[in-house]
Write a structure and sequence with these properties.
Number of helices of chain B: 12
Order of helices and strands of chain A: HHHHHHHHHHHHH
CATH architecture of the largest domain in chain A: Orthogonal Bundle
Distance between the termini of chain A: 52 Å
Number of domains of chain A: 2
Distance between the termini of chain B: 55 Å
Oligomer: heterodimer
Radius of gyration of chain B: 25 Å
Strand content of chain B: under 5%
Helix content of chain A: over 70%
CATH class of the largest domain in chain B: Mainly Alpha
Largest sheet of chain B: none
Low-confidence stretches of chain B: none
Mean pLDDT of chain A: 86
Number of strands of chain B: 0
Order of helices and strands of chain B: HHHHHHHHHHHH
CATH architecture of the largest domain in chain B: Orthogonal Bundle
Low-confidence stretches of chain A: none
Structural class of chain B: mainly alpha
Number of helices of chain A: 13
CATH superfamily of the largest domain in chain B: MetI-like
Number of strands of chain A: 0
């Protein structure tokens, strides 16, 4: 303090000017760093599109992998990815939402609930390849599900479970207490309150969480390599719908598969330059899908937020 | 149906409530069982491995060649690869992420913040296999111009790209922590004549330190567990080195390498991936425990 008192007014002014300059400098650095990050993202996408430009087209979408780069396509990978995502969503949505409802609406505050909560947080931090090892040991060998679409879908469902749970809890929490109390006041049971009042208001948040989870799952490569996805599959899994009774068949769940990220990985790792164009084209499609899903999630969140006025 | 007589009896509704609660609880238990299953599977499967390889050799050996005829099982080269790529990634992600967090929390307008945050999160949403392509075919050629003689596969480019990938995790989590610092603390600082930057660095950052530490730990966990970027760009040759300009393998890359091959399930090489996975889990656990104590030690209560 004494030092400050002895400062002349000129010194103080000079110091202040310097500190203000530093402030301005930081604003510039901050903006620059941010713009640089976003620019790299844009460059990455544009570069993929440019490198893969020669391969885009109907043939690329409807061809099986091939030894010849210019004949190879992503048909089996795209179908595999679609089927896996279907299984993942079908498992992760009900389990994740149910777990979130339990934690948010039902669970008493005790050590047991604490354990479940800690587990959810921890699972979010487990490296994805460890989920692959879990699935390899558990689904593929112990349960005998094999290296199938079902194993892959279940693995990715476990992987995105924390994302769905956290998003659902957040949106359940944002429903005001008054809504619940009004329903209780009319004699509704807890489940009726949750089903008829809390859940409908949280649909937006739940959907957002599911889509963000799926956008994570669609690009996950490591866990499904670990359970043994093949990279050269020149056939499609059996169709889920058939012309004869019982019209649905579940053979496709047991089928071997490949997926978009696996196909890209396979093409990138080949020394042959021609395959790298394939990798770029497939990468651009996969990245485009991820970005689209993220945009959709943001849009849904925005729409629902706007529509609900408490 | 909606006349009073049409309502299901109270007893039925109460029973249904109990059933539903049990169902919901069992969904919650899936998370607990997943954790237990991860630990059990890793320990069970690697127990076969440790029947052939002593834990001492595993932890201290400096050669990792399970796929060669002269098989050696020292995990050190994989650990050094993992630590090196993680270090490079953190050297990018921590300064960049923290700068962005400070900028967004203390300097940016509300509108800018709300626009930029979702865009930044896209950086974390890019599929890692695409980042691998980016590292191998765009970043490495660029680096080779700057560092002559840089091998085509190296940990530097993989680490840099992982760093970019974890920037959004570091930035958004630390930004949330900084924004939780109460306004009156900033105002006290302004009233003493401090500028925004001084307030940010000397009041807000120390006040939010426990949250910022949590963000860094999250970043470290992601970097340690990242697989595809290193598998594609760092070259899959286990090497005991901390020099980022060299090719090397990480724990994760090794697991991928074995999974791609066609080793039989009961071979030692195959079982080694579970032992490697166990080490990976323990490493993330150690970082998380450090983070837990850091956040507790520096927690500020307002």
């Amino acid at each position: 303090m004494a030092a400050v008192a002895q400062m002349t007014i000129e010194e103080l002014r000079a110091g202040l000017g310097w500190r203000k300059q530093l402030d301005k400098l930081f604003v510039m650095v901050g903006l620059l760093v941010m713009i640089a990050c976003l620019a790299i993202l844009a460059i990455l996408f544009l570069d993929l599109v440019r490198d893969g430009a020669s391969r885009f087209g109907w043939d690329f979408l409807t061809s099986f992998p091939s030894r010849k780069a210019e004949r190879a396509g992503i048909l089996s990978a795209a179908v595999g990815t679609t089927m896996i995502m279907f299984v993942t969503a079908l498992v992760a949505l009900p389990v994740g939402v149910a777990a979130a409802i339990y934690l948010e609406e039902y669970a008493p505050k005790n050590w047991f609930t604490g354990i479940i909560e800690i587990n959810v947080t921890n699972l979010a931090g487990v490296p994805s390849i460890v989920y692959g090892l879990l699935a390899l040991g558990l689904f593929v060998y112990q349960f005998g599900l094999g290296q199938s679409v079902l194993s892959a879908g279940l693995t990715l469902a476990l992987l995105i479970l924390p994302i769905v749970i956290v998003a659902t809890r957040e949106s359940l929490r944002s429903v005001p207490k008054a809504i619940r109390e009004a329903a209780y006041g009319l004699g509704a049971t807890r489940w009726e309150v949750t089903r008829d009042h809390v859940l409908p208001y949280s649909t937006g948040g739940i959907l957002t969480g599911l889509i963000l989870g799926l956008s994570r799952a669609i690009g996950e490569t490591a866990p499904i390599i670990t359970i043994g996805a093949l990279s050269f599959i020149a056939f499609l899994p059996p169709s889920p719908v058939s012309g004869e009774f019982p019209f649905l068949n579940f053979e496709w769940l047991r089928s071997e598969f490949t997926a978009m990220p696996i196909q890209i990985f396979n093409w990138v790792s080949r020394p042959d330059q021609a395959f790298q164009a394939n990798a770029a084209a497939a990468g651009a499609i996969l990245l485009g899908m991820t970005l689209l899903m993220n945009a959709l999630a943001i849009w849904i969140r925005y729409r629902f937020r706007k529509r609900i006025n408490w | 149906m909606q006349g009073l007589g049409g309502f299901a009896s109270l007893r039925f509704r109460k029973t249904r409530d109990r059933m539903v609660e049990l169902l919901l609880l069992s969904a919650g238990l899936v998370a607990v069982f997943t954790t237990i299953a991860i630990v059990c599977i890793l320990v069970y499967e690697s127990s076969f491995f440790f029947r052939h390889v002593s834990i001492g050799e595993f932890l201290t050996g400096t050669m990792w060649t399970p796929l060669f005829a002269d098989a050696r099982y020292g995990i050190m080269p994989l650990v050094s690869g993992t630590l090196t790529t993680t270090m490079v990634a953190l050297l990018v992600a921590i300064p960049v992420g923290t700068t962005i967090a400070i900028y967004l929390s203390e300097f940016a307008t509300h509108r800018l913040r709300e626009t930029v945050k979702p865009l930044l999160e896209l950086l974390g949403a890019v599929p890692t296999v695409v980042y691998g392509y980016f590292a191998l075919l765009m970043v490495t050629p660029l680096l080779q111009k700057l560092i002559p003689g840089l091998p085509g596969f190296n940990m530097l480019s993989a680490g840099l790209v992982i760093g970019l990938m974890i920037v959004p995790y570091v930035a958004t989590v630390s930004e949330d922590a900084m924004r939780a610092v109460p306004r009156y603390m900033r105002e006290g600082s302004y009233a003493m004549g401090a500028t925004r930057l001084q307030t940010a660095l000397r009041v807000v950052v120390p006040g939010a330190f426990s949250g910022i530490a949590a963000a860094y730990i999250l970043g470290i966990s992601r970097a340690v567990g990242e697989t595809m970027v290193v598998a594609i760009a760092a070259g899959m040759q286990p090497q005991l080195t901390f020099d980022p300009t060299e090719p090397a393998a990480t724990i994760t890359a090794y697991i991928v390498q074995v999974s791609l091959g066609d080793l039989p399930h009961d071979s030692i090489g195959y079982q080694s991936i579970f032992a490697a996975g166990l080490v990976l889990m323990l490493m993330t656990l150690v970082f998380n425990v450090i983070g837990f104590f850091l956040t507790r030690r520096f927690r500020e209560a307002y």
